[in-house]
Design goal:
Number of strands: 0
Order of helices and strands: HHHHHHHHHHHHHHHHHH
Oligomer: single chain
Number of helices: 18
Largest sheet: none
Shape: globular
Structural class: mainly alpha
Number of domains: 1
Radius of gyration: 23 Å
Strand content: under 5%
Length: 450
Amino acid sequence: MLQYVSSELNFYIMSRPIYLDKIKTKIENPVILNIIWLSFDKALRIVIALGVGVWIARYLGPSQWGELNYVLAIVSILTTVTNLGMDSFLVKSILEKPDQKDEILGTAFFTRLFIIPIVFCFAMLFFYITNAETRTYILFAFLSLNFIIAPLDLIDLVFQSKLQSKLTVISKNTAYIVGAVIKIYLLLSEKSIYWFAAVMGLETTIAYLLLIYNYQKRYNLLDWQFSKTLVKDLLSTGWPFIIANLTVILYMRIDQLMIGSLSGKAELGLFSSAVRITEIFIFIPAAMSSSYLPALVKLKKEGSNEDFIKRMQVFFNWMVKISIAISIVVSLLSSQIIQLLFGTKFSDAYQILIIHVWSLIPMFLGVASSQYLVIENLQKYSLYKTFIGLLLNVILNLLLIPSYGAFGSALATLLSYFTSAIFSSYFFHSTRLLFNYQIKSFQNLFVFEK
């Protein structure tokens, strides 16, 4: 017996370096490294959000927390409009035409700058029509830095295309940590809601200053050039992405705007707390997709179509497995999660969370599907699919919010997400193959591939 154990131990000791080398080789893969950095970015944000963010929610209470999230929802929509929703398309363009990188970036940058005053005027008009209070204007003034400085996020796209996301992670998380420290001081000093909005704007400014610094060490912003020819090409080719991504952010945030208008800010505060839990997990498909896109583009361009299809199917399969596992765990522990994080004032939010967390499944599949549509040049169907989701979401919110409040909005979100991300693919001949991939990913739920 001792001889057997000794031989097994010797085998383990002799083979251990081989296993370590294999692990090291896997980790040193650029795609894996990029996923690790992006996951670290989101993980750190989750830790801070669960600490400082939840502390702020407890401190402000459902009503003020809802008011802050109401303005943040508007700013998110404006930021998407300013960015023209073309991030994936621009990364693809830079990968396919690296010699035109500076022209692509410069044209996109100045186009986004032109959009900023237009969306700002639309925001003022919206506040005027909805009879917004003075405090809403003040909160918006502080938070508007998030979309005013957004054109510089093009730097991140360069780092994504080069699988250098760690530079973005370091820049943005440094600012995030600085902001968290300041927020803790504000909490201990019992400052008003305006201070917290101001710090959120400051975080963004610091993050982009650091992004510029890291970019200038490797490239040069002054090399960016505006091209009239290219702007026409970008807009004519990318307009489906612009409208589709705007539609996406609208039906991701329209529920918050409608709850705030139809049920009040306190109800919105409960809904926002549940949404914050769900959104914790969005980093998983985002990190995997942004890191996986260059490999998929290369495989489509240089490899066989059969290999590309297999790789895409594996991607979809894992998206479903991970999202379902998360949804089950969070649903079962929803009451404890809300009580632990937000306290008794937010206790009713657990019912909202039970429903809303299942929207992770179409979210995960939607992110994967968008990569497929980009690679196959089927981006116009993103517009159709997301418009269907937005329309259904608005209709269901109008029907359900008056009777069921935030719970009804969570149900509307779930149904519209599944329709937009999955079932709408069956409506169009060109995306029916995508629908088959998605359905097959549910059939492969208990099949585990590498």
